[in-house]
Amino acid sequence: DELSDPRHRGLMLCGIYTSISIGILAISGFGAFFKWRIASGIATILAFIAFIMFLFMYESPIWLIKNNKLKQAEKVLKSLWGPGKEQQ
């Protein structure tokens, strides 16, 4: 949220709660159609995939700046915003 465009912040914040609700619905649906061991296995696999994805995410530029890693923060901001938007 700290780096999102102000026009999209509301949508992004609502998206968090919508994603949580969809996740709960999906796991409940798995429990309704599969045996509990299969449903819990699917949930475990999805959580593991999410964990692996988080390993490759960038650190927050604000955290990097607070920890005196300015070059790395600049690199992350350029990759997030794209070239030519250094002023933002």
State mean pLDDT (0 to 100 scale). 84
Q: Give the overall shape.
A: elongated
Order of helices and strands: HHHH
- Count every helix, treating DSSP H or I runs of 4 or more residues as helices: 4
GO molecular function, one term: transmembrane transporter activity
Keywords: Membrane, Transmembrane, Transmembrane helix
Organism: Diploptera punctata
InterPro entries: MFS_sugar_transport-like (IPR005828), MFS_trans_sf (IPR036259), MFS_Trehalose_Transporter (IPR050549)
What would your notes on this structure say?
The structure is a single chain. By secondary structure, the chain is mainly alpha-helical. 72% of the residues lie in helices and 0% in strands. The chain contains four helices and no strands. The protein has helices spanning 9-33, 36-55, 61-66, 70-81. Helix 1 packs antiparallel against helix 2 (36-55). It is elongated, with a radius of gyration of 18 Å. The mean pLDDT is 84. Keywords: Membrane, Transmembrane, Transmembrane helix. Pfam families: Sugar_tr (PF00083). The chain crosses the membrane at residues 12-32, 38-58. One of its GO terms (molecular function) is transmembrane transporter activity. It is found in: Membrane.
